[in-house]
């Protein structure tokens, strides 16, 4: 029996409430000048006070040394082993904007990017152009048909778009065109097995078409595709944990992740003020809340150390509003590390705190990477956090005689 099976067997329906705050890309690395991480640099008195009342530790989203994408990072936090439950980025983007994915559809996440005159990527995010500009570009790319396959293009958020291929004989077993690094040219989409040759050919023909359309769009004069995928069939959060779960997330991809596991996705804005209000408005209607904060990750990916510090300090000011709701268990962690000095996702373990009436507080009094090394949780797989939360909310039966 795996963890999902065990949780399905032991989970109880109770009135206790769990709030899981995910500060996307939370973990960091020391600034070379100050030798302090973003968390250690930030003025976060409320997080530190909460850590002193909590059991703390570090978590690994996948395995030590493995750099996770946002999909596996969040699935692990939801208690799904990311090595067993695999999902592509394209599906998450599509579901996040309520796109009606049909059986056989293959979805891909698109990044509008900037290419130089030699076709080399200089900015994978085209300066994070506005969603309004992406919407115009998406409309120009939408509606192409290639060998009987319809290509549907929709704007998602900022530079992100979703490209859905709809037709017969398609496969998601193809490589990405996005090398996920600047200084390289986009890569051709290639078949991973013999059955996906047609998909690769169609994707490359679409990319060639998009290149012509985007020639005069600056800074968004290129397109990168990754995460070709179909909609999966995962056991639902309700089925596994006996929880009525609610997702409060302003960015489409994370709303898509919540939908994949069957959470209700409530209407909210992208600011912390709006998200806190959504939490208040829905607190009596659900017993599990996934509360997502994007700014930490965006700053880390942009290599902006001081901005990531500011995002942490800003969240700290809103933390009392979450605590005032008196959830029975409150978790604060991240889906992965995004150190600003890396300018991207990292493999480093992620700080985590779990606070509740039945948690055994440890000696940690500061919420940081170094402090959490000595915490009572130790260094655990991220997918084990849900059983810890469930136990502390008195939502698990005893295992065995």
Verbal overview:
The chain is of the alpha/beta class. It folds into 2 domains: 3-86 and 235-392, Alkaline Phosphatase, subunit A (3-Layer(aba) Sandwich); 92-229, 2-Layer Sandwich (Alpha-Beta Plaits), CATH 3.30.70. It has helices at 3-10, 38-41, 45-52, 70-77, 89-96, 131-141, 197-214, 237-241, 252-260, 272-282, 295-301, 305-323, 369-372, 385-392; strands at 18-23, 55-60, 106-115, 121-123, 144-146, 149-157, 160-166, 222-229, 245-248, 264-265, 288-293, 329-333, 350-356, 378-381. The strands form 2 sheets. An 8-stranded mixed sheet has the order 10-9-11-1-12-13-2-14, sandwiched between helices. Helix 5 (89-96) packs across helix 9 (252-260), helix 10 (272-282) packs parallel to helix 12 and helix 11 (295-301) packs antiparallel against helix 12 (305-323). The chain starts with a helix and ends in a 9-residue tail after the last helix.
């Amino acid at each position: 029996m795996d963890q999902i099976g065990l949780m399905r067997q032991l989970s109880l329906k109770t009135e206790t409430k769990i709030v899981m705050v995910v500060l996307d890309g939370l973990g960091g690395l020391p600034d070379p000048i100050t030798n302090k991480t973003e968390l250690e640099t930030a003025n976060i008195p409320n997080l530190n006070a909460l850590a002193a009342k909590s059991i703390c530790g570090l978590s690994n989203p996948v395995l030590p040394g493995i750099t996770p994408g946002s999909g596996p990072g969040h699935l692990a936090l939801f208690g799904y082993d990311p090595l067993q439950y695999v999902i592509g980025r394209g599906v998450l983007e599509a579901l996040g904007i309520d796109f009606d994915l049909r059986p056989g559809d293959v979805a891909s996440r698109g990044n509008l990017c900037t290419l130089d005159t030699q076709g080399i990527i200089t900015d994978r995010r085209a300066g994070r152009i506005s969603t309004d500009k992406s919407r115009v570009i998406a409309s120009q790319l939408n509606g192409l048909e290639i060998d009987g396959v319809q290509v549907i293009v929709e704007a998602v958020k900022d530079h992100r778009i979703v490209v859905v291929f709809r037709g017969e004989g398609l496969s998601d077993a193809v490589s990405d065109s996005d090398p996920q690094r600047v200084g390289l040219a986009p890569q051709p989409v290639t078949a991973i097995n013999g059955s996906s040759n047609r998909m690769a050919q169609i994707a490359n023909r679409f990319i060639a078409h998009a290149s012509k359309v985007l020639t005069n769009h600056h800074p968004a004069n290129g397109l990168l595709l990754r995460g070709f995928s179909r909609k999966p069939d995962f056991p639902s959060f309700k089925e596994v944990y006996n929880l009525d779960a609610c997702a409060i997330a302003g960015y489409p991809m994370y709303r898509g992740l919540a939908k994949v596991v069957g959470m209700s996705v409530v209407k909210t804005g992208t600011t912390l003020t709006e998200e806190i209000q959504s939490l208040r408005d829905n607190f009596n209607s659900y017993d599990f809340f996934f509360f997502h904060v994007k700014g930490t990750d965006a700053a880390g990916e942009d290599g902006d150390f001081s901005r990531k510090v500011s995002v942490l300090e800003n969240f700290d000011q809103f933390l009392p509003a979450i605590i005032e709701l008196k959830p029975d268990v409150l978790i604060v962690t991240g889906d992965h590390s995004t150190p600003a000095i890396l300018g991207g996702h990292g493999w480093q373990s992620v700080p985590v705190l779990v606070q509740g009436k039945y948690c055994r507080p440890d000696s940690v009094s500061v919420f940081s990477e170094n402090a959490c090394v000595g915490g009572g949780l130790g260094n655990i797989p991220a997918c084990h956090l849900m059983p810890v939360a469930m136990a502390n909310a008195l939502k698990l039966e005893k295992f065995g005689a």
